[in-house]
Design a protein that fits this description.
It comes from Rhizophagus irregularis. The protein is mostly helical and 506 residues long. It is 70% helix and 0% strand. α1 (6-27) runs antiparallel to α5 and α16 (370-393) packs antiparallel against α17.
Amino acid sequence: MGELTFYLIAVSFAIVLGSFQFGYHIGELNTPKSVISCENLPTPNDDSSLIRCIPMNEGEFGLLTSILNLGGLIGSLLSSRVADTKGRRWTLLCNNLFLFIGPIVMGFANSYSALVIGRMIVGIGCGVTSVVVPMYLAEISPAEYRGAFGVMNQLGIVIGILFSQIQGLYLSNVPGWRIILLSASAMSIIQFIFLGFSVESPKYLASRTEGYQSAKRALQKLRGKTEVEEEIGGWKQIAAEEGLEGLIDNQQNENLQQQQSLPSSSQDNIEESISTTPEPAVVFHARNSNRDDINIWKFIGSLHYRPALKVLLLLQITQQFSGINAVINYSTTILKKILPTSSDLITVYISIMNAIMTVVSAYLIDKSGRRTLLLYSMSLMSLASAVLAFSITYDLALLSSLSIIGFVATFAIGLGPIPFLIIPEIVDTHSVATASSLGLSINWICNFLVSSLFLEVREILGGKVFYIFATYLFVAYIIGNRILPETKAKTVEEVWHDWSGKYVKT
């Protein structure tokens, strides 16, 4: 517990408030849907300053819900470069502008278009959060707590969802639904204040020219001790093992400065990427300066990355085509017909189970392995989805409740946390950023498709819509059983050792 300081916990809390807001916005429209869309209210009087509700059909409400994902796609694509040039902390500080303005626009909306614009703005903020929060957490976490810090992002999201569902229990009325939408802006202010007292990521600072001393001070504050050279030295070792530039120590800098005065012929062995500033720096980029950048098109087209690409596509598409966000976004609507008085409460139980199993997954992921949990998750979700379809079709209230909770629980142990966690374990370091960007883009697009189309398809098929998800998950299980490798405690090279197009036990 020596390195788990109060200040480190406080900074982590400030960062995870971004994940909390992301989760809150995912769940905020679920419970108050019928009130917001005038299902049980008369058509509003347009002359009033704030109308009671905003008329929407199922297709329009589906678009309103899913527009968050288009905003998220934009935010996620823009955020990596900003975070790398301006810093993780600065990016999250500025991102609160989106997370403040969006809820204000939605909370005071008097038209459908205003709601859509506000949710799009919120989506951009959520997209930035989805990229920067995991990065920031990973870079401040002590090595022995990396697993716990890794699950903080997902836990923040599910607790945010739970909080919005609890609010919905008490505020799904007029004007309560506006309070649900507006209250998110207060969270952005809280995060802004907390981040004001937080340090920048030490690893980010160390990657900047003349940033060594700033990185050292930040790390000392996080660890609560002055002796941090050993940890910084560990960065160098890890970087060296992964083929990256590591820490340049003071002696190396002095040698470099002396070598600068030598004729160019004497410097053939000096790498261009090494900083020549008087102060040491940690530089995390390719050691071979002639190495081509791996962009998305090269990653997709390369035979070398084909096995990893198949795994990435399967997991990112399956995470969303499992139907999880149809349940998270519309569980109240799904259950309302057979549980008219308790569907809101079941929605809260779903979120509680999601949070509990997310914590459990932090233990299971390292103990049971990624492949095993993913296959269990896909198969059990397929079964739960089929049971849910059957029970809704035949108005079996208890079975519907149990199956939908089981559906979410089995998602949380596998398909929830693993699809992004596994990316650095199946591609080399030079390609992690590209693979993550591709995976995140696919994820947002698939999320948009499911969220926007679900309500309309459900109007046609009723509960049988979950047979579609069950079938897809069963097919995904069959494919996954063939192509998913085990990555636990293995290097990338070991993961793909003896690869022959299907999973090989080693």
